[in-house]
Amino acid sequence: MQVITTPLHDVKLLQPQRFGDSRGWFAEVFNASAFASVGLPTSFVQDNQSFSVRGVLRGLHYQLGKPQGKLVRVLSGHIWDVAVDLRRSSPDFGKWAGFHLKPRNDAGELELLWIPEGFAHGFLVLSETAEVLYKTTNPYYPAGERSILWNDPTLNIAWPLDALDSLTPSVSTKDAAGSPFLSADLP
């Protein structure tokens, strides 16, 4: 597995090796000993899968008390995935990075995104539909659930809205009521 550093400290792109022939291919997308050897978590407690249509924007989500690290994999479609560093002690506090994720990247490689605990996470669906699967290091904790506004002016995330051809992002009622970054209840 190749581990690629990103602009945010501790956020990693992972490219598992694929083995294939004329019948198709096989890849090991999670192996505890391989993850441990590169300093990634080996214990995940929950798998989540979402299906969304073009223009759906989910996030920016995070949890207090039981923060979730997320290992994100796109099964179908194309999303623009965003991580925001909420760790006050981090040199990247308040910074974000965005990643185009598909079942295979433009070079044909499988790609997963590792977002550690202490980050907000969200994504925008750029294809007609998308299925996203992600593993978490802690279970869903409703009492700690929080959301930062996706279009917060302080974060100034450059969502690729032009790729939606004038379609307005579809945001849940909960996410539309998210907190501005400067007044958010942060870890």
What this model shows, in words?
With 187 residues, the chain is mostly beta strands. It has one domain: Sandwich (Jelly Rolls). It contains 2 helices and 13 strands, in the order E-E-E-E-H-E-E-E-E-E-E-E-E-E-H. It has helices at 32-37, 173-176, and strands at 2-5, 12-15, 18-21, 24-27, 46-53, 57-63, 70-76, 79-85, 96-101, 112-115, 119-125, 129-136, 145-147. The strands form 3 sheets. It has a 6-stranded antiparallel sheet, with no helix packed on it. A hairpin with a 2-residue loop joins strand 3 and strand 4 (24-27). The radius of gyration is 16 Å and the shape is globular.
Summarize the structure in short.
The protein is mainly beta and 187 residues long.
Key terms for this structure?
187 residues, mainly beta, Jelly Rolls, six-stranded antiparallel β-sheet, five-stranded antiparallel β-sheet, 2 helices, 39% strand, globular
